[in-house]
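Sanity check record (used in CI):
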Amino acid sequence: MQEEVINLKNEALAQIMEVSSFEELETIRVTYLGRSGKFTSLIKRIREVSPEKRKQAGLLVNEAKNTIVKALASQKNHLKESARAWFDPTVPGIKPAMGHLHLVTQAIEEISALFTQLGFVRNRYPEVEWDWYAFETLNMPEGHPARDEWETFFVDAPANPKFGQMVLTPHTSSAQVREMQRVKSPPVRMINIAKCYRRQIDASHVPMFHQFEGLVIDKGISVANLKGTLDYFARNFFGPERKTRLRPFHFQFTEPSFEVDVTCGVCLGRGCKLCKNGWLELGGAGMVHPRVLAAGGINPEKYSGYAFGWGVERTYMMKSGLQIPDIRLIYGSDLRFLKQF
Ligand code: PHE
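Expected output for Phenylalanine--tRNA ligase alpha subunit:
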């Protein structure tokens, strides 16, 4: 009997140590100490023990019972404490990881919001495009040397008798004539933000990048309107103290043509190590060439327009003052880099 009592006690204690809920604890209590529990039936059997050993057996069973009662109580307290710790409202919460938009997407959203305020309509056209829209109607006939500047990817597909070869859009200007054809009669006020593709890859070039192209056509549009829009953009995108300037340049599809510069954000035009005498180059612009208007079915005698086209990545880097040693980082998947924006 003595051995039986000790075994039963150890068995119960081992189970009590293992529990993780009040329900399990209660089940153990009933199993051992309940009305038809294991100890209860043991106590009933004390009568069978010989009279001289009976007292000792009684003491032993009682002692075992008390140990179990104490163990149950202390385990119950322990459970209560850990339950309280679980609900401790002062413990810092676990923050779920939150993603955010890619920096280029952020830039695109910001740029389109700005031009939308000015009444531009955001539009997009095919990125697998005909030579016709990418070059021909932009006053760059087949074989024209100016085409070389757009290191174009040609699609390996049969050429169209009218539209020529299929290309990946090397610039967003391919949307100019498409937009004129869509609108048919001015005013035209388009902002086209899209992917561009060129055969180039090094620390400052990627084969796929983004441009945003503005096109405005109406009666009496002049360089003054272009300059006003550019200044508005510079003030709102880069900061109120920033200015733009137009430098003479050449594009086949604009006349006159310009390169647009913005004052350096660090020296504000005074000149420093990060800029060229106070200025940073943004990109191309100009007055839409009469031949381009005509190709889009718009009478150049009646209407005039301006256009500009700049790289999104470049423009965004200028804004943030970001000096990315290798532009390819933007299109890598390294979260240590991307998380910073
Ligand atoms: N398409 C030109 C480029 O890729 C930029 C440009 C757009 C210039 C519109 C003039 C007018 O460099």
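Residues 2-85 form one domain. If this sentence no longer matches the regenerated tokens, the check is flagged for review.
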